[in-house]
Design goal:
single chain; alpha/beta; 6 helices; 7 strands; 35% helix; 22% strand; globular; Formyl_transf_N; Formyl_transf_N_sf; transferase; EC 2.1.2.2; GART
């Protein structure tokens, strides 16, 4: 008797730049036994390297530029949401998406949108996480995957990886080591999240 496998969860990745985390999510999702697949990548900025990486991996990649919507952030998000609905997306993964989300989008995707953040939340939400950890004299930094809620980087933690801060680290060297940890943590955590 052949085992019927549950269809893969359809994931959209939202990016604003180079898309290194996005690339790791796509690669992991293309494995035969992965519980999810990235079906579309959307950037709020045109001509970013991440869109080219997604296309090279065989994934549809689109830009919905926020500048075209002026200060109306919700209208921009509604345009993205319409694209995701057309593609039957079930989960959103934010990967270097550098926009504060409106309550409208967060509520619409409540419990179905995840993000990766380059600190050990609840420490250092927001920006400049590596410099802040070094300045505080912390012995370790890391990364966190969490569910997106209306507060910035406040949602329930799904997974974390710790990275030691070395005596000669600066924000850039620490960032590179944390990024390597992110590329392992995010696909594993997303897979566990969609398989729940």
């Amino acid at each position: 008797m052949t085992e019927t496998r549950k269809p893969k969860t359809r994931v959209a990745v939202l990016i604003s730049g180079s898309g290194t985390n996005m690339a790791s999510l796509i690669a992991a999702g293309q494995a035969a036994d992965a519980p999810y697949e990235v079906v579309v990548v959307v950037s709020n900025v045109a001509d970013v390297a991440g869109l080219d990486k997604a296309r090279a991996a065989g994934v549809e990649a689109l830009a919905v530029e926020h500048k075209a919507f002026g200060k109306d952030r919700e209208a921009h998000e509604r345009a993205i949401d319409a694209l995701l609905a057309e593609r039957k997306v079930e989960v959103i993964a934010l990967a270097g998406y550098m926009r504060l989300l409106t309550p409208w989008l967060v509520r619409k995707w409540a419990g179905r949108m995840v993000n990766i953040h380059p600190s050990l939340l609840p420490l250092y939400p927001g920006l400049n996480t590596h410099a802040r950890a070094i300045e505080a004299g912390d012995l370790e930094a890391g990364c966190t995957v969490h569910i997106v809620t209306e507060g910035v980087d406040e949602g329930p933690v799904l997974g974390q990886t710790r990275v030691p801060i070395l005596p000669d680290d600066d924000a850039e060297t620490l960032s590179e080591r944390v990024k390597a940890a992110e590329h392992r943590l995010y696909p594993q955590t997303l897979a566990a999240f969609v398989a729940r």
